[in-house]
């Protein structure tokens, strides 16, 4: 984001001593002109530095670099690990995991840039704490009901709801390197208990769990990708498709089935709804397991 880049540049100049304590910081108007941004964006950058205690407004002087005493005394009263984690989740939900930084979280909390490090060693640990908290937002009945299929469906829908609430969760790591998170293990135990009723050996049980989890995660990956595409392009899904129409029509040459599908869709309309794709795929997956294992 542009205001973060402007703040980073000013922060670097302050750290290097190019802007010593008491030095006047470029005005909002000057920053807007130099960086080719709106006045509001420039103002947001200065507000971020003010929250970090790096700059302060002085009567008749404008915005100046704060003295070291003020920076050291920037309050972090009431700061806890839980507050840091919840604030970080809010940032990731709204802007994606790529936008998350320790400084950004500190700014949101209105504390000094280094204050969160008293509670979290860095961004890597913070992301794991965020993921564990997010996966723990929904659980399961203490007394399971229904057959294996009903319980596995509940497990899939529960995970899907969490991925929809926190799209960044699906981006955290490859399936081959599972996250050692207590609350993620809760979802794993629920799915494994249901799948174990298929009466398979341990290796097959593990394979089936990987298949189930990767299906849910695989659909969920597109949630944040669409969010990122919208942010970077400024185009909605419908607007993007409209712009691709000439290219899609050119692709149909010599592909009669593809061409017929597009003609039919053009007449009847089509909305890609991931909720519907998820439900349809879940039913197909469970139908296949039922046939394969006689259940």
Automatic annotation (TrEMBL):
Ranges where the HTH tetR-type domain occurs: 78-138
Stretches assigned to the HTH gntR-type domain: 1-68
One Pfam match: TetR_N
Annotated keywords: DNA-binding, Transcription, Transcription regulation
Protein name listed in UniProt: GntR family transcriptional regulator
Natural source organism: Amycolatopsis nalaikhensis
DNA-binding region: 101-120
Matches recorded under InterPro entries: Bact_HTH_transcr_reg (IPR050679), Homeodomain-like_sf (IPR009057), HTH_TetR (IPR001647), Repressor_TetR_C (IPR004111), Tet_transcr_reg_TetR-rel_C_sf (IPR036271), Tscrpt_reg_HTH_GntR (IPR000524), WH-like_DNA-bd_sf (IPR036388), WH_DNA-bd_sf (IPR036390)
Domain of life: Bacteria
């Amino acid at each position: 984001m542009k205001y973060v880049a402007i703040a980073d540049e000013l922060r670097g100049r302050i750290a290097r001593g190019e802007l010593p304590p008491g030095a006047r910081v470029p005005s909002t108007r000057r920053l807007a002109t130099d960086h080719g941004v709106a006045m509001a964006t420039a103002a947001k950058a200065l507000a971020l530095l003010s929250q970090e205690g790096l700059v302060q407004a002085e009567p008749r002087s404008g915005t100046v670099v704060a003295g070291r005493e003020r920076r050291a005394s920037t309050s972090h009263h009431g700061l806890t690990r839980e507050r840091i984690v919840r604030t970080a989740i809010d940032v990731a939900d709204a802007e994606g995991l790529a936008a998350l930084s320790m400084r950004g979280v500190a700014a949101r909390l209105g504390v000094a840039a280094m204050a969160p490090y008293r509670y979290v060693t860095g961004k890597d640990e913070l992301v794991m704490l965020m993921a564990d908290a997010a996966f723990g937002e929904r659980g399961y009945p203490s007394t399971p009901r229904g057959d294996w299929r009903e319980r596995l469906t509940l497990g899939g829908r529960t995970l899907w709801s969490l991925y929809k609430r926190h799209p960044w969760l699906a981006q955290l790591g490859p399936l081959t390197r599972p996250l050692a998170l207590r609350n993620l293990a809760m979802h794993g135990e629920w799915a494994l208990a249901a799948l174990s009723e298929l009466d398979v050996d341990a290796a097959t049980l593990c394979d089936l769990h990987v298949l189930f989890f990767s299906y849910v995660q695989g659909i969920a990956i597109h949630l944040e990708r669409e969010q990122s595409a919208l942010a970077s392009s400024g185009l909605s899904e419908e607007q993007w498709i409209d712009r691709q129409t000439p290219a899609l029509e050119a692709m149909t040459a010599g592909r009669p089935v593809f061409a017929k599908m597009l003609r039919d869709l053009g007449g009847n309309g089509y909305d890609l709804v991931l909720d519907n794709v998820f439900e349809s795929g879940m039913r197909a997956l469970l139908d296949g397991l039922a046939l394969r294992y006689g259940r």
